[in-house]
């Protein structure tokens, strides 16, 4: 992504340049198709999805122009020594994310790659605050308005569904078990993201399928028997996860993971409601996992200010052409 000047109207744009390689070009066309759909359905950008301003082919390189945004919520946290966001900021970021993804789901789309790197602040300007608890300065973002980005893996319901989707740490159990997936896999990812913004670290820090499932069981309890019996992925024996608790990996999981509610960092309603919602998003069975329609009715959002609930105001900007022409 490079920052460029649009000479037609003297504005800055973020330009995503995709190499002139057949498979990348085809992927770019699919992303443009999704972005065109989002622009058509939401021309004012009220649903917190990044807006494509234009696209063009430059000597075979596909170029997509976007509005210029700030740091991702991940990069801001990394630059802040992985200090977590305060609960009221987690609430506003998560609320916008739920609304953005609910909009996608309404359009029969699944994002499939939700992660903190794909959530950008509109403006990541910050202030420095001294933390008496940490005995050091910490950064606090001034404005928690966000945009969801990267629709390169977004999939319509009628399109081919790849067997494996999502970045590892945010991958739902039905994807790992190869049981098929749809919109609920996005909800699982959001639960993982909310936990990470609240604690400052990744919930499932692993790169191995079996270890990932063992972590899930340690944090959330046993994987349902019906899912274990249905999968052909080979991780279970008679409905139980094959896992050596006494191995090096077993000890790692035991020492680094604990039941979900033991991660609570406060005893107020705000903290407990956040974890109640995360727990509902991390329901193993996708058919029983909370939908974003119901998630947005959760009492966790009661603490939002009217300004935080407000729809963002944006100027509409014409694009020069579309794939359909």
Structure commentary:
The protein has 325 residues and is an alpha+beta fold. It is built from 11 helices and 12 strands. It has helices at residues 22-41, 73-79, 87-106, 173-176, 184-199, 209-220, 225-230, 248-256, 269-281, 292-295, 306-309; strands spanning 2-6, 11-18, 52-58, 61-66, 109-110, 119-121, 126-131, 136-141, 146-148, 155-156, 236-237, 240-241. A hairpin with a 2-residue loop joins strand 3 (52-58) and strand 4 (61-66). The longest helix has 20 residues, at 22-41. The two termini are 26 Å apart.
Summarize the entry for a quick read:
With 325 residues, the chain is α+β, with helices and mostly antiparallel strands. The protein contains 11 helices and 12 strands.
Provide key terms for this protein.
325 residues, alpha+beta, 4-stranded antiparallel β-sheet, two-stranded antiparallel sheet, 11 helices
Measure the end-to-end span.
26 Å
How would you classify the helix and strand content by structural class?
A: alpha+beta
How many helical stretches? 11
Content of β-strand: 15-25%
Please estimate the helix content: 25-40%
Oligomer: single chain
Overall mean pLDDT: 94
Number of strands: 12
Order of helices and strands: EEHEEHHEEEEEEHHHHEEHHHH
Shape: globular
Low-confidence stretches: none
Cα-based radius of gyration, to the nearest Å: 21 Å
Largest sheet: 4 strands, antiparallel
Major β-sheet strand ordering = 1-2-4-3
